[in-house]
Write a structure and sequence with these properties.
Layout (H helix, E strand, L loop, with lengths): L29 H13 L8 E5 L5 H9 L2 E6 L2 H12 L6 E5 L11 E7 L8 H10 L1 E10 L8 E7 L7 E7 L13 E3 L2 E7 L4 H5 L13 E5 L1 H10 L4 E5 L7 H6 L2 H5 L1 E7 L2
Parallel strand pairs: 1-2, 1-4, 2-3, 4-5
Antiparallel strand pairs: 5-12, 6-7, 8-9, 9-10, 11-12
Length: about 280
């Protein structure tokens, strides 16, 4: 089987890596390190009795590292090529506490309750984010770690997402700032309301042909042809509304230049953050 890793450079037990040409391995990813800090804060001590789900786990990199931390881990992924990569990794690591399933992330409830949910790079590919957050809350006992793009209210500031497409190859996506009205293909619309919150729509597939080829378009939605990005302030409110008592944004993944990143750097340009929900 020809396994093509497009994103996750995972260290296997024999010392080899799944994407050796990458600049760094996933165990040094700032998002993973930040997630590890909040997981340790919420669950100090032994973790072998705790369940965590990685929804939309792509090639399984984060799930592997959570299993190495000691959690009972379930990675959920809908694309066959990605689940093949996950299963390949599982065969190369000695982690009996790691499991992958091929399923739609909307079917998370089929696998019971979890102490924690890790949702990274998925919510901004969902057309009904409030409904999905409500679903995640229903299966989460304590902790939600949510890493996602969000909309802003800033006038004439829109993210434009371009895809370079080639059958059977990874879509390479690049986020750039645009001063246009955001209504063109692959741009965000003007601010509007959906699920009673302000946000912007993002077009996932420009035509039916692309949608039919979605198995190969690994960094796009699955069921929906467009996705809704809630405005940041209302996203935080939504997390609270669906049942998380404590809600906060986590910034330490922006180290060592948190302020610069928020003012003019990557955080500002990408409009992407990590949001934490905790139940008591």
């Amino acid at each position: 089987m020809n396994i093509n890793f497009t994103a996750h450079n995972i260290r296997l037990d024999d010392g080899s890596f799944t994407k050796p040409e990458a600049n760094f391995a996933i165990d040094s990813d700032p998002r993973l390190i930040a997630a590890g800090r909040i997981l340790e804060t919420a669950f100090p001590g032994k973790k072998d009795h705790l369940r965590i789900a990685d929804v939309g786990c792509l090639e399984g990199g984060y799930a592997v590292e959570f299993a190495r931390m000691g959690f009972q881990v379930l990675g959920i992924e809908v694309r066959q090529s990605n689940i093949d990569a996950c299963n390949y990794v599982k065969s190369k690591v000695n982690l009996p506490n790691l499991m992958f399933v091929k399923n739609n992330a909307w079917n998370i409830a089929e696998y019971g309750e979890f102490d924690a949910i890790f949702c990274c790079g998925l919510l901004y590919h969902i057309d009904n984010p409030r409904q999905y957050l409500k679903l995640l809350s229903s299966v989460t006992r304590k902790l939600l770690i949510l890493d996602t793009h969000f909309a802003t209210s800033e006038k004439d500031r829109h993210l434009k997402l371009f895809f370079r497409k080639k059958i059977g190859k990874l879509l390479k996506k690049t986020l750039i700032l645009s001063s246009k009205n955001g209504n063109e293909h692959f741009g965000l619309t003007s601010i509007c309301k959906h699920e009673d919150v302000p946000g912007r729509w993002f077009t996932e597939y420009k035509n039916e042909e692309n949608f039919k080829n979605r198995e190969n378009l690994k960094w796009a939605s699955w069921d929906n042809r467009r996705s809704f990005w809630p405005q940041r302030e209302y996203l935080i409110q939504m997390i609270n509304d669906v049942g998380f008592d404590t809600v906060m944004e986590q910034y330490d993944s922006l180290n060592p230049n948190i302020a610069e990143s928020m003012i003019s750097g990557n955080y500002k340009k990408m409009s992407r953050g990590t949001f934490i929900g905790i139940k008591y």
